[in-house]
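Appendix B, record 7
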Amino acid sequence: MDPSLILSYGWVLLVLVFLEGLLAADNAVVMAVMVRHLPPEQRKKALFYGLLGAFIFRFLSLFLISYLVNFWFIQAAGAVYLLYMSGRNLYQFYKSKGHGPEQPEGDDHHYDEHGTEKKVSPKAFWSTVAKVEFADIAFAIDSMLAAMAIGFTLKPVGIHFGGMDLGQFAVMFMGGMIGVILMRFAATWFVELLNKYPGLEGAAFAIVGWVGIKLVVLVLAHPQVHLIPEHFPHSTLWQIIFWGVMIGLVIFGWLSSLRHNKKKAKEQSNS
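Structure tokens (predicted):
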């Protein structure tokens, strides 16, 4: 095999892994917020089902992407749900701030006095899983569209599989799967971070809404909607805006959490 072909495929795979890692970061925040209310064992199960669904949806979307791109309303529905979830939780978060009990830190409140985990009802658990899977569908389309835009720049190897070149398919599939694995570990880390620093919760809800805005931009740029230029969601300008706001929200949330922890420590020392 031509060494230059191997080099180009390896380079594109690295770019895809980096790209999927960036996409996994905002997806993971959404998953972490969705499952955080569950006790630890059920949370792990919900994240496992979310990971399994992400694998399946990304694999299927590689074969069905030519059809799925026409269903822009899937991403529109995902955007509406994320914006609704963000707005509702932000309202409740700031409404309860300073009124009523504080959000408990850690996972101790998920256990009774005997150390037995207090599980949520099957209905509540599977409702959470269903929400995670719904978000997975919208994210899978976004992920595979980005992967195809890069993967199709590769020189075909001449063997066809699933209606596309086998080499291009393999690179896009591996990039997507690595992205899912990154998302799983990132989601677990974000849950632990939210448990350790409850003050970050407001920023996390804001980030969920910002990811919803990202889906809105993708919908507006869809060829069938075409309210903004089709290339804009993948432009350097939008990437700078999106990640600039994301980083700004994280910094704001971190500073708010530090201020909250200092205030709490001062109150405890005075009592």
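Remarks on this record: The two ends are 73 Å apart (CA to CA). The mean pLDDT is 77.
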